[in-house]
Amino acid sequence: MKDHASPTQTALRPPEDVMRLRRMGAAFPTRLSFLRTLMRALAADHVQVQRPIWDMDAAGFGHAVYTLRFGGYDYALVAVSSELAPQMRTDRVIASAWDTSYVLYDGIPDASEISRIIAMAPQQEAARFTARDLVLSRANKSVRLFDHVVAALRAGEQPDPEKIRKTGYLMRTTAVYGNGKFGIADRACIADRPGMGGPFMAEMLTVWLIRGFTHDLAEHVGGARLSRAAKRQLGIGNATGLGMAPFLVNHPLLLDAWMQVRETALARVRAIPSLETEQIETIYRLVARTAQHLVEWNVPDPIAALRIETMRREWPEFAATLTPDALMAATPIDQIITSSARWSVDTQELVAALVLEPFGELIDGLTECMATPFIPELDPAMACADLRAFIDRDWTWACAIDYDQPDDCAQFWYVSEEKLEPRLGHRQTEPGAELETPLDIGRQVKALAVDLALDGPVGQFLADYPQHRAAVRRVQTLARHPYAEIRDNLIGVDCLPIDLLRCKLAFFGAAKFDPKSDRWTRITLAQGAPLFDELENADDWWLPVALI
C-alpha cells in the first residue's frame, strides 16, 4: 500500500507571538479564507446560478430569486429591494429599515414561501423565521456610487473606474445572521452537507449571491450592462462592529482550529526545499499586485492610514530582497519569512499571506480541519499540580498583570439590553459594570492561580471554589489547543476591539479594512471574486486590484 506520509513542515510560529492582539489585528485574507474555500468548492461542483424570478419596477423595488444546486442540495436567495428614506439609511445596529434584505433558503421556495419571506425579511430581527431559512441578511446602498453607476449606464457609458476603485461595492451589509439566530436554521442542520461543512459557508454563499444581485439591480435600473471588469471590481461591502468581537473569545476551539490550519500551512510552505519557475513567477506577480493594492487602499482613520503608509514604504524594501538568487536558494520561503522580521508586524503578516498563494495543492486540503464539532470540556480528575503547571507554562502573561490597577481593568464587556449584542464600557466613567460578561479571561485565570491548592484532583478543588470552574476549563483547553486563547488583557485600557474584528474578518476573506473607530470597521468582501458564470476562474483573486 502506498505510504501517504504528511508533508514536511517547519515548526509552527509560537502561539505566544501569534496570539497577541496586535498581530491578530494585522491579519490579511489568504487562500484559506472562507470565501476562497467556498469559490473553489463551487467551481469543483460546477455550480450554475439561475435567476428564475425578477420582479422589479423601473426604480429597482421589488424582489428576485436566485437558485443553485450545490453538493446535491438546492438553495435559493430571496432578495427584497425596498424604498428607503435617506434619513433611515444607517450602518448602525439600531437601524430598523434597510434598502435591501435577504434570506438564503433551504431548497427552492414556492410562491407561498416567497410571499412569506418578502413580508418577513425587511423586518429582520422583528420578524419570525423558520428552519428553512438558513441565513438572514440586509444591506444598504453606497448611494453615491450606486447613483453614479446607474447614471453612467443610462448615458450609455461605463462608470468611472476611479469612483469604483475608491468605494469597491454598490451595497454593504450590516448583518449576515446564521446559526439559529432569530429562529432560522441551526448550523447543525447543514453542517454535514457537501460544501457546507466549513465555517460560515452558508453565510459566505449568501454574501456572494448578494454581490451578484447588486450588479443585476444596478444594470436593471441603469438599463444597460456593466462591463465584466467593473463587476469583478465591485464586491460587497460590510459594516461590522462590537457584536462580532467576542466570538473568538467565546469559541476557543474554533479559534484554535483556524489558527492551527493557517500556521500549519505556513509551516508547510516554509519547508519547501526549492521553487519551480512557475512558482517564482507567481510570487513576483503577487508582489507587484500587492504594491498596487496598497496604493489603492486609502482610509481616513489616521492610525490605520499610518500603518498602510508604513507598508507602502516597506514593500519595495521587501521586494528588493526577492532576487533570483534568493528565490532559487534552499528553503526560500523559510528565508523570506525569517527575513521579514525586520519590518513592521503588518508587513510581516502581509508577507505570510502572500507566500501561501502559489501552493494550493500543498495546503488547500487543510481547510477541511477548520470546523470542529467539539466544545471545551472540564476534566475534574486532573491533578491540581498538573493544572498549576499548565498555568505556569501558558499563562504567565495573565498572572503578571495587576488587575487592581485602573488601566488594567479599564474596560468591561456587557450585552446591550436593546439589541442583545456585545458592547464595551469604561469602568471608571460609565455605569453597568455590575452587568459585566466574563470576557476577562486573564483576570479569571490569575484569580484561579491565587486560590489553587496543589493537593488532590481538580474536581475536589472546585467543590470548595466553584467560581473558578470556567477558568479551570480555559486552562485545560489551552493546554491541549495552543492557539485557543488570545494572550492579551481583554479588559485593559489598551485592548482594541478592532483587532478582534480584523482577525475574524480576515478569515472570512475581507480586505480593504476601513476602521471608523477602534470598535467598528467597514470592509470589502468578494472584490475580484468570480462572477456567477466565471467559476472556472475561481482561485486567483487574492488582494484584487483595479483592472478597468
Task: Tell me what you see in this structure.
The structure is a single chain. By secondary structure, the chain is α+β, with helices and mostly antiparallel strands. The chain has a domain at 10-26 and 37-138 and 173-196 and 257-496. The chain is 40% helix and 14% strand. It has 22 helices and 11 strands. The protein has helices at residues 15-18, 21-24, 34-44, 111-120, 143-154, 161-167, 201-222, 228-233, 247-250, 252-270, 277-296, 302-320, 324-327, 332-339, 345-354, 360-363, 384-394, 396-399, 441-451, 458-464, 469-480, 497-508; strands at 50-56, 62-70, 73-81, 100-106, 133-141, 169-177, 235-240, 411-415, 422-426, 511-515, 521-525. The strands form 2 sheets. A 9-stranded mixed β-sheet has the order 1-2-3-4-5-6-7-11-10, with helices on both faces. A two-stranded antiparallel ribbon has the order 8-9. Strand 1 and strand 2 form a beta hairpin. Helix 19 packs across helix 21. It is globular, with a radius of gyration of 24 Å.
Topology:
Blueprint (H helix, E strand, L loop, with lengths): L14 H4 L2 H4 L9 H11 L5 E7 L5 E9 L2 E9 L18 E7 L4 H10 L12 E9 L1 H12 L6 H7 L1 E9 L23 H22 L5 H6 L1 E6 L6 H4 L1 H19 L6 H20 L5 H19 L3 H4 L4 H8 L5 H10 L5 H4 L20 H11 L1 H4 L11 E5 L6 E5 L14 H11 L6 H7 L4 H12 L16 H12 L2 E5 L5 E5 L23
Parallel strand pairs: 6-7
Antiparallel strand pairs: 1-2, 2-3, 3-4, 4-5, 5-6, 7-11, 8-9, 10-11
Helix pairs in contact: 5-7, 11-12, 17-21, 19-21
